[in-house]
Design a protein that fits this description.
Blueprint lengths: L1 H5 L9 H22 L4 H20 L7 H24 L5 H10 L6 H23 L7 H13 L1 H12 L4 H5 L3 H9 L5 H5 L4 H14 L5 H24 L4
Helix pairs in contact: 2-3, 2-4, 3-7, 3-8, 4-6, 5-6, 6-12, 6-13, 12-13
InterPro entries: DUF5995
Length: 251
């Protein structure tokens, strides 16, 4: 059942919005199954589902929200499909991309805190997949306002993601999403003031601006290789900070 629901090849629809609706419905069923089983691979899915249902889908259904509604649908669809493809690979023994292998490894390791595992999923989603989705959707300067409308809509509904993850798995993402304990915990790892800003950028427009810039650069042949290196480097920095925060008892 998991393999069938996660298979991107099974998604149907005649438009990006129809395909997004189908993909989101499949993912919602998948998230519910993982939650019901207590399967920690759902640590990311339950929060993603909350964001999709409360923020992404309502916005995508209202075409007047966007300068280019078709582009917006393609971006959201591509982003969701990337996660589904990696989950499908994980449950069928296929090749999983490194950023998602990190998440699944932590999710399947009961010694890792559920919050740590969940945040590894958001690191993969926001740092790597979102940049690649920006490129795949053919993003241009005219799409920038629509990009920020989407990411801002998700940020505004962050409490739903926090509440759903806590309810399903007892994982408290609140400190990281809201930032009210991030500073002291990070300072205890690397020294006062050194890394606090780096992790706070994970949830604000500054971080999303980096992701957008990386996605735009991926579309330029002369810049693509460097953009891939920057994406990998940013993902690694965030992963290292999250690991240090977990060791310091901050999550």
């Amino acid at each position: 059942m998991l393999a069938e629901l996660a298979d991107p090849a099974a998604i149907t629809g005649d438009s990006p919005l129809e395909r997004l609706e189908d993909a989101a419905a499949r993912h919602s069923r998948l998230a519910a199954i993982l939650e019901a089983r207590g399967d920690r691979r759902g640590l990311f899915s339950v929060g993603l589902d909350a964001g999709e249902q409360a923020a992404v889908l309502p916005m995508q259904r209202d075409h007047e929200q966007f300068v280019d509604a078709r582009w917006a649908g393609e971006l959201s669809l591509d982003l969701l499909e990337r996660y589904l493809a990696n989950l499908h690979a994980r449950v069928t023994g296929g090749v999983v991309e490194p950023q998602w292998a990190r998440f699944f490894d932590l999710a399947e390791d009961c010694s890792a805190s559920p919050a740590r595992a969940a945040m590894a999923g958001y690191n993969a989603h926001l740092t790597v997949d979102l940049a690649r989705a920006v490129a795949a959707a053919g993003t241009r300067d005219a799409h920038v306002p629509d990009f920020f409308r989407i990411v801002d809509a998700i940020a505004v509904r962050g409490d739903l993601i926090i509440d759903r993850t806590r309810s399903a798995y007892g994982a408290d993402l609140g400190p990281l999403w809201r930032g009210y304990v991030v500073g002291p915990a990070l300072d205890s790892i690397v020294g006062e003031g050194v890394a606090t800003t780096a992790l706070l950028r994970f949830a604000d427009m500054g971080y999303n601006s980096l992701t957008l810039a990386h996605g735009l650069a991926l579309q330029e042949p002369m810049l693509a290789a460097d953009a891939e290196r920057r994406i990998a480097g940013l993902w690694q920095v965030a992963d290292d900070v999250l690991a240090g925060l977990a060791m310091a008892g901050g999550m």
